[in-house]
Amino acid sequence: MRKMSLLAVAVLVLQLGFILSYVSAFHQPTPHAIPIAVVTEAGLPDGLDQQTADRLDALAGTPLDARTAVDTAEVRSLLRNRDILGAYVVGANGTDTLITASAAGSSVASALQSIFTEVDAAQGRQFVVRDEIPVGAHDNRGLTGFYLSVGWVVGGYLLAAAFGLLIEAPRSRLETCMHVGILAAYSLASGVLGAFITTGVLNTFAGHWFPLTLLGTGVVFATGLLTMGLRALIGIAAVPAAIVLFVVLGNPSAGGAFGTDVLPSFYASIGRWITPGIGTEGVRSIVYFSGTGVGQPALGLALYISVGALLVIAAALRRRSAHTQVAAPAASKV
Predict the structure, then answer these.
(1) How far from the centroid of its chain's Cα atoms is residue 158's Cα?
(2) 116: CB partners within 8 A, 6+ apart
(3) Three-state SS for 262?
(4) Which of 218, 226, 217, 222 is nearest to 310 (CA)?
(5) What pLDDT does 291 receive?
(6) d(CA 97, CA 88)
(7) Does residue 69 surpass a pLDDT of 90?
(8) Where are the beta strands (DSSP E) in the chain?
(9) How many Å apart are CA 220 and CA 160, to the nearest integer?
(10) Are the C-beta atoms of 76 and 101 separated by less than 8 Å?
């Protein structure tokens, strides 16, 4: 009865943490320092672009971080290099243009439209919207990459958790290699099949099967290896720890439903360093930006794999040391 009560309390705490984390992240999305560029059309006074940028920077709550650009050609380059998330072209005829990139996050594009609706209304002007880098026709609101990433992450920590719950932690170097080898094979299968479903079956990300396979394999392996390392080091407590990291914190901060530029600062700062966010950002970089920005996800996966490997090695060394200490007295008695 006591064990069941403690287990119920632990699950309740985990459940409340889930509710608190998701509601905290999503209950009031507020844009903050969204990077944009300002361009003025020919015929307008010199310096108007900088004056406009300064006014936008001074908006209450600092929703924008404005800079100037020479023309729309530079804007396109900045958008594709992911230096900005939108642009505001001041028109000479009183109609301005808001340039967005919904592929970088539909929530950010929507936030920019809301901001400039108020800005132009206050000035008695109007604007039109041009989506320079739109999401694909089969990628509604750009969420497919997020759900693909979540699927990979869930598979990674579920396999490692299942190993921990149903099979004892490896007790030798051979068993450790077997566990890691099975995880590696599973990760490759997950990467291949997950990428195939989205590219070959659903045609959502057609033409990107191989790089998505590499990304998915890395996401699954990194998630699983870290969970496996925690399981070997701290035991069954690794399962709720993995849920807290990858689900309670990782999913709401991943930039799927809401981009990091409209999330609270805590979630914005951690999102791209937890595997759901790493995968989401990696998919966007591969599919919509020709690989621009994929370096950070690659670095994140390398860190997870390194830490997971160190944890597995540390646990193996600890078990070996404990086995040696137990064997030594037995040998002395003989």
Answers:
(1) 19
(2) 88, 96, 98, 127
(3) coil
(4) 226
(5) 94
(6) 6
(7) yes
(8) 34-40, 64-68, 86-90, 95-100, 126-131
(9) 10
(10) no
Q: What is the pLDDT of residue 323?
A: 52
Calpha distance 199→43 (Å, rounded): 47
Q: Please give the structure tokens belonging to residue 258.
A: 């809401």
- Of 198, 219, 241, 244, nearest to 156 by C-alpha is 219
Phi-psi region of 255 (alpha: psi -120 to 50; beta: other; left: phi over 0): left
Long-range contacts of 199-207 (CB under 8 A, 24+ apart): 202/138, 203/138, 204/136, 204/138, 204/139, 204/144, 205/136, 205/139, 205/144, 205/145, 205/283, 205/286, 205/287
pLDDT confidence of residue 270: 94
Mean predicted confidence (pLDDT) in 159-184: 83
Tokens representing residue 208 in the block: 């990107």
- Amino acid of residue 122: A
pLDDT single digits (tens) 255-291: 988 988 999 999 999 999 999 999 999 999 999 999 9
**290 contacts: CB under 8 Å, gap ≥ 6:** 80
